Every structure is written in structure tokens, then in C-alpha cells.
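Re: that backbone. C-alpha cells:
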């Protein structure tokens, strides 16, 4: 099985033409996407400002206007995926908020967030920023440990082939520009499910692969920079799209 793993599109529509050419050349069996379709700058900036100023975030006029941009990015990205002739599986990223906007925009057959699909292989996942105890689903997507583990534990009796997350496990793939972007909850998902593969994102520039116990973990790097990965067995090829 040949897998193309992608993550962190962030509204970079200029990558779609070279990506389509690469997909046609590679002809993968499936495509995985680890979240962050939209930019969400206004929501994210307000969220961070409110945290720094120790106040509740507010829905500003900029955030209201940003909704139309989000919807356009979703439409463009999913229209692109609809044109492909291969199965696609994905979770939302931390910027793909509100959760309801992502879920209402994404074709059901693509989404493995908080769910499990059995075709062509057994795949599950959980998106957003996975944390120990934080919850947010409007300005950004943050999910606490209990929510994630309660959702995924029922799948522990399955032979799961692939897990897709946005947050990476704490590993060599999670530390970026002096900041730890991984979550030990993802490490615990690996211990719970023992998947063959885990595909993640969130750490945009930490492109790489690492074996964690019996699981081959891959962060393909950010698609907005043209990054992608191709996986066959325990071999992985990292590449960058041309014509950017």
C-alpha cells in the first residue's frame, strides 16, 4: 500500500496544481491529511491575545468576516479532493474551528475525527490540538485527554492500521522553534491502539519519521510550504512540490 501523507494547508491554494500533478505521478493507494485547511488568523490572534491579557476572547468584526474566507477555503480544498480518484481520510487541525463549521463543510466520507472507517484499511483519528485538560471549539480546536481517550478506547479491540492526528506525539517530530507542540496523549493513543502508522502535523517545519514502539510515525511537514511524504511499508520519501 502506497500512502501520501499531507498536513497544514492553511489556505495555500497555489500548491493545489503541483499537488495534483504529484498525486497523478505517484498514484498513491490512499491520501491522509492531518488538519489545518484554513488560516484562521483573526480567531487565532484573538485567542492568543485574550490568553495573554487574562480575559475571555471576543467575537470581533474581523472574526465575523473571516467566516466567509474559511468557507471558501473549505470549498476549494474539498472540491480539489473530490476530483481525485483515491480514498481520502482526514481530521481537523487546531485552526479548523469552529468544529461545527469544519464538520458541516467536510464530506462525511473523508472524516475519521472521533470515528473509525474500515475501507480500504482500518483508520481512526482525532484532530485539533490534543491537550491534557484544555477545551475550546470556536476560536481554535482544543480537546482534553479524557475526551480523546473516551472516544478512541472503544476502537482498541480493532486491528487499527492508521491513526491520523493533528498533534504529534512527544518525540523528535514535535519540537519546533523552541516550542513543544506534541502531546503525551498521542503517545498514549499509540500504546492503546498499536497502529502500524500514525500521521500527524502541527509542527510545520519538523518534517520527519520516527519509530515509536511498533508504530511508524510520520510528520510530512506543512503543505503550505509544498511539503509531502510518500510511505510504502517502512520506507518514507519526503518531498517538496515544484512550481511554487
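Recovered sequence:
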Amino acid at each position: 500500500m502506497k500512502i501520501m501523507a499531507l498536513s497544514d494547508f492553511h489556505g495555500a491554494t497555489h500548491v493545489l496544481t503541483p499537488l495534483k500533478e504529484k498525486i497523478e505521478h505517484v498514484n498513491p493507494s490512499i491520501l491522509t491529511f492531518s488538519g489545518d485547511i484554513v488560516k484562521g488568523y483573526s480567531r487565532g490572534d484573538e485567542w492568543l491575545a485574550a490568553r495573554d491579557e487574562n480575559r475571555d476572547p471576543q467575537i470581533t468584526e474581523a472574526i465575523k468576516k473571516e467566516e466567509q474566507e474559511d468557507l471558501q477555503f473549505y470549498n476549494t480544498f474539498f472540491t480539489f479532493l473530490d476530483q481525485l480518484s483515491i480514498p481520502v481520510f482526514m481530521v481537523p487541525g487546531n485552526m479548523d474551528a469552529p468544529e461545527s463549521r469544519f464538520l458541516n463543510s467536510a464530506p462525511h466520507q473523508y472524516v475519521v475525527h472521533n470515528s473509525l472507517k474500515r475501507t480500504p484499511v482500518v483508520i481512526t483519528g482525532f484532530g485539533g490540538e490534543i491537550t491534557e485538560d484544555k477545551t475550546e471549539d470556536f476560536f481554535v480546536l482544543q480537546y482534553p485527554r479524557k475526551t480523546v481517550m473516551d472516544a478512541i478506547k472503544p476502537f482498541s479491540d480493532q486491528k487499527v492500521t492508521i491513526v491520523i492526528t493533528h498533534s504529534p506525539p512527544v518525540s523528535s517530530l514535535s519540537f519546533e522553534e523552541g516550542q513543544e507542540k506534541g502531546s503525551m496523549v498521542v503517545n498514549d493513543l499509540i500504546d492503546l491502539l498499536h497502529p502500524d502508522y500514525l500521521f500527524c502535523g502541527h509542527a510545520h517545519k519538523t518534517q520527519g519519521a520516527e519509530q515509536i514502539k511498533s508504530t511508524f510515525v510520520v510528520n510530512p511537514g506543512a503543505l503550505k510550504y509544498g511539503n509531502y511524504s510518500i510511505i510504502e511499508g517502512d520506507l518514507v520519501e519526503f518531498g517538496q512540490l515544484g512550481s511554487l
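The two ends are 28 Å apart (CA to CA). The first helix runs from residue 16 to 26.
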